[in-house]
User: Which sequence fits this backbone?
């Protein structure tokens, strides 16, 4: 039986077990003189029975799903004569794939070597056997669980605490998914990066000044030096992010100040959500806007004044990215500015300061840690932003601080290295993971510092 | 005492400048807000102007005769004859008849190129739906090629765009326009078809379905897990290092760049678990992992907003902690959680970068029928079209963006509506 169907069957068993358990509990309660004689409500006995019936069987099924494929293919490969796969692990995997394809009918049997066809048939046979045996085994386990749990139901059985404890474990497991994700990220990025650093030294990667990831297929190929110095990418990322922050910080901060300190309530009620629309627009839309509207406009504008502006300039990508980040900065600063106690403002105004002097000399200094934290979060977002730069900035790794030139960024390189077909052992693909590691670490550090600053700041007024 | 008037005078004098600074500061604030709002407006107007054209397409009226000999078909019920029929011959013959003075082979080919390469299939569908037409003659509106579409639309705007068209083709087009045999019709193809290399045949339906499947999976995976995690952290978690560690992880994950989740998906789901590329399952998994922190954070806020008196009342009546949470806290917090889930889904709908990593950028013509079919999603479709060199794709891209923004606006408005409608103030 197929795994999905088996899962449904087991769930049906568990549902039936619930009714069996509850019925049993009701029956016992009647004999003992009413459900008050039971330790737990009949429903809990039902849930308990369902858990005993379903949980072990489902766990068994999961283990089978994870391991059976590997075990069966290993058994089939071992049954082949040793000469078939040259001994290296890659060849073994390839052969396993080929046999699996023959077995599934993807490859026609007609023109394959007889020995592989036989292996494919063996694979099919073993798969059938394993499917039937897991069906039988899981059904047995769930039935045994059901009978065992049913036989245990007595007025004294404490099923409620058991059921509740298992719910709590399930909730804890769900909460841990976030931790698994973090470990998954670290594992995947770090593991591939370490492999990358075996072929390219860390120092060359971090301090190298030349980036051209095309490795040569033939030795005499031109222009494929395959050098992995990431400094041009860092410079490009910094340049684009800097342009973005130059746009976003003043506009975001000033909007927050204006909406929080000056604007009439009704203006604020409409202007604030309208600004936040900017945060809801998908980045791919910004990318399209940057590449097809802003970049040509800047190029034509530059031509009018005699500048040569690249059509993939860092300026265009940065400008649009800045627009995207405006609401991010404005809402974070708004939070901290409104958190500044009114008494500080009143004190300053009472001393005769104008409103703007109060804002500049009292409110902003008081809110500064929060604003700085917000800006750091914004920088981390600008560094990690992908689509705008993929669509609007270039691929050539130029070392330049001129925003009118074309630059490339870390995220652009990750995307270009990893889209399309790739094999996992070439340094070109692994380089993307190394860049991902750098990106992850930088944003992580920025976030941790920012969160710390925000936390410390909040404690001052509460 | 005697110095006082001097101070006063000094202050009086400085007041002019200080008030000026005040006005300037206020003006700066107003300017900043206006710039932000102008940016919103600019993006929307720009997309709207570029995109509206894609909802109509240029059609050419041709007198098509369904000749049996020309088609090579005797019986429409015979599947083999239908498949081998020369459907393109029908519109080619109609074009030849309308423009008999074009005789050279190269020019003829240019003439045929005025009509979309899908026109043959359209005629086939038309005839198969009405088999009685075989042998008769009728005027059909036939889909024009994308270059013609660009030409006609720009001609309507008064500034004809002629690149890639030959002089002969333009003469033919002008004849068609003057005899009113060229018209804009509603572009149903755009909303009902999958992707295509030919802009006039390309549609977003495949991407919409792909997005729908992916988001369904994202919701099914991340919503229950997110709620469970939030309930654990708010109601059950002891105050210890483990809980702290989980919380730090969630907060950090919420700020990790989305492309990193793409790397996770590539290395773990595709490389380690051997899930095939390009399918909604993998996209849904990656987006679920990505939206999980957002959903946990909003769900926690919703649970926090349930007043403690409710919990104490339930516990006071003898409910266990589980019963208190399941029977009282969760139902009250659910509207807030749903709002958070919708906002999380809206973000997942607009996400592109991680999906590029897991191969959802493939060129897929067929409309996905299930979770295991190769698919692309709306934002990735936009990315792919934005990369295409054909001019007509600019229009398509903008129109696809309009559809995407339409979905996002609907989702966000429904979230706001839900919050207003269902959320209680305590």
Assistant:
């Amino acid at each position: 039986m197929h795994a999905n169907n088996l899962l449904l069957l087991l769930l049906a068993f568990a549902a039936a077990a619930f009714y069996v358990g509850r019925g049993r509990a009701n029956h016992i309660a009647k004999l003992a003189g009413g459900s008050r004689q039971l330790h737990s409500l009949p429903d809990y006995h039902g849930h308990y029975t369902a858990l005993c019936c379903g949980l072990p069987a489902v766990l068994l099924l999961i283990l089978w799903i994870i391991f059976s494929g590997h075990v069966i293919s290993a058994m089939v490969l071992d049954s082949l004569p040793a000469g078939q796969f040259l001994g290296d692990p890659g060849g073994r995997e390839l052969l396993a794939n080929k046999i699996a394809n023959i077995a599934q009918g993807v490859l026609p049997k007609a023109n394959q070597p007889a020995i592989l066809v036989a292996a494919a048939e063996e694979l099919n046979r073993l798969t059938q056997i394993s499917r039937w045996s897991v069906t039988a085994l899981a059904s047995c386990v769930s039935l045994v669980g059901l009978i065992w749990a049913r036989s245990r139901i007595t007025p004294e059985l404490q099923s409620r605490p058991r059921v509740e404890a298992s719910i709590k474990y399930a909730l804890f497991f769900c909460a841990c998914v976030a931790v698994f994700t973090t470990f998954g990220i670290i594992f995947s990025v770090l593991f591939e990066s370490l492999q990358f650093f075996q072929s390219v030294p860390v120092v060359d990667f971090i301090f190298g000044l030349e980036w051209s990831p095309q490795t040569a297929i033939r030795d005499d190929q031109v222009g494929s030096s395959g050098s992995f110095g990431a400094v041009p990418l860092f410079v490009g990322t910094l340049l684009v992010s800097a342009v973005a922050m130059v746009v976003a910080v003043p506009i975001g901060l000033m909007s927050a100040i204006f909406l929080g300190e000056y604007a009439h309530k009704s203006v604020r009620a409409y202007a604030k959500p309208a600004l936040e629309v900017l945060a809801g627009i998908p980045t791919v839309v910004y990318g399209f806007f940057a590449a097809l509207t802003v970049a040509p406009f800047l190029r034509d504008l530059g031509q009018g004044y005699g500048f040569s502006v690249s059509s993939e300039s860092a300026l265009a990508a940065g400008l649009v990215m800045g627009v995207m980040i405006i609401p991010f900065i404005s809402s974070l600063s708004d939070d901290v500015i409104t958190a500044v106690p009114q008494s500080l403002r009143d004190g300053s105004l009472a001393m005769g300061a104008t409103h703007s002097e109060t804002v500049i000399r009292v409110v902003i200094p008081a809110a500064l840690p929060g604003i700085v934290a917000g800006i750091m979060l914004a920088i981390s977002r600008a560094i990690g932003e992908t689509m705008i730069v993929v669509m609007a900035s270039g691929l050539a790794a130029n070392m330049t601080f001129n925003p009118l030139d074309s630059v490339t960024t870390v995220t652009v390189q990750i995307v270009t290295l990893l889209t399309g077909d790739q094999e996992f052992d070439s340094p070109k693909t692994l380089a993307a993971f190394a860049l991902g590691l750098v990106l992850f670490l930088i944003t992580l550090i920025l976030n941790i510092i920012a969160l710390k600053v925000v936390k410390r700041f909040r404690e001052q007024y509460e | 005492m005697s110095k006082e008037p001097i101070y006063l005078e000094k202050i009086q004098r400085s007041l002019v400048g200080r008030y000026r600074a005040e006005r300037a500061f206020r003006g700066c604030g107003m300017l900043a807000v206006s710039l932000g709002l102008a940016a919103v407006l600019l993006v929307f107007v720009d997309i709207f102007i570029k995109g509206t054209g894609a909802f109509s397409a240029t059609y050419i009226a041709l007198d098509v005769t369904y000749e049996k000999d020309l088609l090579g078909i005797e019986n429409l019920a015979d599947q083999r004859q239908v498949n081998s029929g020369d459907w393109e011959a029908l519109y080619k013959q109609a074009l030849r008849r309308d423009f008999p003075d074009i005789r050279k082979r190269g020019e003829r080919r240019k003439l045929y190129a005025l009509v979309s390469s899908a026109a043959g299939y359209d005629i086939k569908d038309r005839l198969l739906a009405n088999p009685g037409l075989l042998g008769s003659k009728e005027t059909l509106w036939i889909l024009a090629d994308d270059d013609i579409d660009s030409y006609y639309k720009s001609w309507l705007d008064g500034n004809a765009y002629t690149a890639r068209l030959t002089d002969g083709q333009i003469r033919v087009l002008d004849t068609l326009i003057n005899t009113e045999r060229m018209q804009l019709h509603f572009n149903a193809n755009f909303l009902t078809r999958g992707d295509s290399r030919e802009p006039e045949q390309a549609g977003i339906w495949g991407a919409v379905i792909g997005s729908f499947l992916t988001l369904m999976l994202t919701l099914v995976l991340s919503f229950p897990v997110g709620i469970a995690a939030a309930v654990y952290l708010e109601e059950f978690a002891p105050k210890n290092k483990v809980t702290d560690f989980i919380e730090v992880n969630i907060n950090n994950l919420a700020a990790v760049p989305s492309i990193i989740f793409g790397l996770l998906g590539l290395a773990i789901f595709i490389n380690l678990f051997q899930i095939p590329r390009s399918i909604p399952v993998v996209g849904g998994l990656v987006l679920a992992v990505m939206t999980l922190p957002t959903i946990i954070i909003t769900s926690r806020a919703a649970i926090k907003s349930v007043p403690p008196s409710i919990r104490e009342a339930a516990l006071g009546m003898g409910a266990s902690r589980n019963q208190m949470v399941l029977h009282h806290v969760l139902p009250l917090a659910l509207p807030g959680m749903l709002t958070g889930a919708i906002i999380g889904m809206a973000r997942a709908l607009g996400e592109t970068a991680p999906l590029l990593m897991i191969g959802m950028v493939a060129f897929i013509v067929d409309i996905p029928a299930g979770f295991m079919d190769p698919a692309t999603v709306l934002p990735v479709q936009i990315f792919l079209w934005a990369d295409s060199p054909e001019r007509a794709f600019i229009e398509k891209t903008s129109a696809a963006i309009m559809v995407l923004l339409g979905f996002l606006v609907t989702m966000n408005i429904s979230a706001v509506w839900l919050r207003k409608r269902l959320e209680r103030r305590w």
